[in-house]
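Fig. S4 source data, part A: sequence.
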Amino acid sequence: MEIEVKSQSDDEMVFIVRDAEVPFINAIRRCAMVNVPKIAIEDVNIIRNDSAMFNEVLAHRLGLTPLVSDLDALEGLSLPEDDGWEDYSNGIKFQLQEEGPKVVYSKDLISSDSKIKPVYDTIPLVKLKEGEKLNIEAVAKVGYGKEHAKWIPTTVCVYKQYPEITFNEDVEIDYDCAQACPRGILKSDRRSKKIKILDIEDCTMCKSCVRASDNGYINVGFRENDFIFRIETDGAMPPKEVLLKACDVLGEKADKFIKFSDEGGSK
């Protein structure tokens, strides 16, 4: 198996996996979404809320506010499988004390740990009118996406099989089929008497070009064992960390399965 990174930024990563199979690629995708630990606000104690927003809605907005969850932030924190994880005192404390008139933003959340804070400062939480006050205590904990969406580290985690476009040289060139491509991947070059493929990896295999060709000049398919994988996060974790952790989790699951098989299964 070969992996080639095509692009990488703070919150997005695109790479190509060659010589792999669908079940393996899909297992990585699922592990990245639901088995990678992330930090999010779990417990909310609303002492005072004079705003028009219901307590439950405000607590939900706090839970979905992305918090920094890289490897440094996660170090030393309890996992859901650890004893005492559910205790209110076990986690990162946050304070939110504000008085209107103002819009309360994520930057107003005061964390007990300088490493763990909202990823973005400008997420609006609630609007306070003149004289309205807000007093909240909250606790952030480590969790998994399989339990709640707030713990899913990825906003996008998808793959597609590597596109493959071929031409039927036995029939006349159909230049018009290139115009049917909605993503502009194909370009008609009448001077060289051929259709150029500008960016094969951007092809969605919609086959609009195939349907537009009356004589079957163009064919769109895919390489069975090659994939284009894309991971995008909300900024809480770098996509590379998400991928590496997902691979570690998948490896641990495989080791457990092998051990279970070697021991003859449960009795």
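Fig. S4 source data, part B ends here. The chain has a mean pLDDT of 93.
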